[in-house]
Amino acid sequence: MQRRERTRHLIELGGLVQKAGLVDLTADDRAALLGAFLGLADMLKGEGGQAVVDVWRHRGRRAFEAEAEAD
Length: 71
Hints:
The protein is mainly alpha-helical. About 85% of the residues lie in helices and about 0% in strands. The protein contains four helices and no strands.
């Protein structure tokens, strides 16, 4: 059961990468994507990281809401 939940979670995260357009923008370059994620992680470890997360969360919620309204 835990393995199935983990697999679902990972698939959903991959869907977010796709939904953000990152797959197309990097030409599906996984090294570039990993580098980008590592850069984001470094940014979040720094001072003001939580404020950045708050901004991203707000933008993400707006995007989800816009998508729900379009459906």
